[in-house]
Amino acid sequence: MGMLDNIQTGRENKPPRIMIYGSEGIGKSSYAAGAPNAIFIQTEDGLGEIDCRKFPLAHSLSEVIAELTALRDEAHEFQTVVVDSVDWLERLIFDEVCREFGVRSIEKADGGYGRGYTHALTHWRKVINLLQELRDKRGMMVILVAHAKVERFEDPENAAYDRYTPRLHKHAASLIAEWVDAVLFANKKFRVTKENAGFNGERAIAAPIGADGGERIIRTVGSPACIAKNRYGLPSEIPLSWQAFIEAYTKIEENHHE
Hints:
Layout: E1 17-22, H1 28-33, E2 38-42, E3 53-54, H2 61-73, E4 80-84, H3 86-101, H4 115-138, E5 141-153, E6 161-166, H5 170-179, E7 182-188, E8 190-196, E9 202-208, E10 216-219, E11 229-230, E12 237-239, H6 242-257
Parallel strand pairs: 1-5, 1-7, 2-3, 2-4, 4-5
Antiparallel strand pairs: 5-6, 7-10, 7-11, 8-9, 10-12
Helix pairs in contact: 2-4, 3-4, 4-5
């Protein structure tokens, strides 16, 4: 049997791998809690008001690894694993790197010059490998929750501009964004209007669109305003709810099989 006999064809119908990020209180954790039979890996204390199943708050990377390993090896009926949040997980990873090198700051690890962040990627890959095993061996969906930050982007073709990105070091953000199937940005819809400010000319006023402080949406396609992507061909904007996401996802999957 030659190597060419191993060539595969067709689409792989595997559970989604998703990172959703946005500002505090926008509804990221509630979105993840709507996924089927979800279990939360809790790295920050923010799930008290959400009805969900969760491991105790993790205080170290080793606890997170142990929880993921248990989901891989032990009998259970969970269908979705949620890491909430990956930016707080990154703090635990930095703590582990600092412990390994006997320093107090990731900036000082292995002599500095950014080497600490490179060592952190080794731990990130361990976490991602476990998540991949949960997907491949246990058929589990993966949802990674992150907070957002505003970052200056130096566009080589245009003037620099600000955009929303996950609150992670750039190396980790790139690694995760490459691994997942969708990076979703959760936000509120705003309408920007201008009003007369007297001698100061005009000023822009941002007002939320919709009731209850504004309509909450997910952006699935990147733009100058935010980092986002998806490999499914989702609409560029959908309501912020698991039901809305899975309906759009299922519709596209059904069209592929027609």
